[in-house]
Design goal:
The protein has 334 residues and is of the alpha/beta class. It has 2 domains: 93 residues, 2-Layer Sandwich (Enolase-like, domain 1), CATH 3.30.390.10; 227 residues, Enolase-like C-terminal domain (TIM Barrel, Alpha-Beta Barrel), CATH 3.20.20.120. It has 11 helices and 13 strands. The strands form 2 sheets. Strands 5, 6, 7, 8, 9, 10, 11, 12 and 13 form a 9-stranded mixed β-sheet that branches. A 4-stranded antiparallel β-sheet has the order 3-2-1-4, with helices on both faces. Helix 8 packs parallel to helix 9. The radius of gyration is 19 Å and the shape is globular.
Length: 334
């Protein structure tokens, strides 16, 4: 079969820069792909590489699309160069290889809080809206200051709330150990990527921290592609896997490995637009394992609200995803 392929690049400013340990992130770059299938129907996908997750870039994805040409066959996925997981996923979705049927009607959502003291101002409103799981970006300021802020943050939340601490690889082992000790007697669900994935001895460090301390650790930047999941499973990882479906070049095979291992999985946004979020969330709804709160409480996100995904609420319903119109988003890029 032959498919007619086209793509459109985007560069969309965030409403407010996203602050992480790597500094402010002000603009989201990626591209949409569209294929016209042999039966005349249209399929869409979003390639949205994340800086710091492997070497894939929006420029590289665009170059790979150009190399594919305007007409592709069933072998299109195999023609995409290695290391382009986001583009491979986008093409798979566009060609009709999306997730299966939803297994649940709704899933809980974790609210993303801004880094630093801004979290203290926003958390009460998120709690009032019904959220009970919160994700806080740490590693932006000094550890002592952030630990003091953590207690203020926890004091502002309703009883029974849980907090995920996301360091984005900001700490060395000593600082990570201090945080794990601090978190042990607090309602911390897990600490996400405490040390950098590409630092020397990172794998041994993460495995050691996960063994030595009771607070679970979640891998995020350490899962830059499908092959990383297999390596961590083979290493005996018992913590969480933060899976950004939009970055998985072969999501079905990767999720099958995680399912067979009965792994603890948290599906998370890659700060993509609504088009990619629709396919990523459908993957989460089709997951047969235990459901952790989704890392999709990120909207409103873009200065142009047309590209925001489903409204950030304590729960997302499977039927909410049907309201996203990929063709409308494609046309909005003209």
């Amino acid at each position: 079969m032959e498919f007619r392929l086209s793509y459109r690049r985007y560069r969309l400013p965030f409403r407010h820069p996203v602050r992480t340990s790597r500094g402010p992130w002000a603009v989201r770059e990626g591209l949409y792909v569209r294929v016209e299938r042999p039966d005349g129907t249209l399929g869409f996908g979003e390639a949205a590489p994340v800086p710091g997750f492997g070497a894939e870039t929006a420029d590289g994805a665009e170059a790979a699309c150009t190399a594919l040409g305007g007409t592709v066959g069933d072998d299109a996925l195999s023609r995409i160069p290695a290391g382009h997981g986001a583009l491979r996923n986008a093409m798979r979705c566009a060609m009709g290889g999306g997730a299966g049927e939803p297994r649940l009607t709704s899933l809980g959502v974790a609210a993303l809080l801004p880094a630093g003291r801004a979290a203290l101002a926003e958390a009460p409103a998120r709690a009032e809206a019904g959220f009970r799981v919160f994700k806080w970006k740490v590693g932006v300021a000094g550890a002592d200051d952030e630990m003091a802020m953590l207690d203020d943050l926890l004091a502002s939340l309703p009883p029974g709330s849980k907090v995920r601490l996301d360091a984005n690889g900001a700490w060395n082992r000593r600082t990570a150990e201090r945080w794990l000790i601090c978190a042990a007697d607090r309602p911390i669900e897990f600490i996400e990527q405490p040390v950098a994935a590409d630092s020397q001895g990172a794998a041994d460090c993460l495995l050691g921290l996960a063994t030595d301390y009771p607070v679970p650790i979640a891998l995020d930047e350490s899962i830059a592609g499908d092959g990383d999941v297999g390596r961590w499973l083979n290493a005996g990882w018992q913590g969480y896997f933060v899976i950004k479906p939009l970055l998985m070049g072969d999501a079905p095979a990767t999720l099958a490995m995680l399912e067979a291992a009965r792994a603890r999985v948290v599906f998370s946004s890659a700060l993509e637009t609504a088009l990619g979020a629709q396919s990523a969330l459908r993957t989460a709804f089709a997951w047969p394992g235990a459901a952790s709160a989704l890392g999709f409480g990120v909207w409103p996100l873009f200065a142009d609200a047309r590209f925001d995904g489903p409204r950030a609420a304590p729960f997302i319903r499977a039927e909410d995803l049907d309201r996203v119109d990929p063709e409308e988003l494609w046309n909005a890029l003209t």
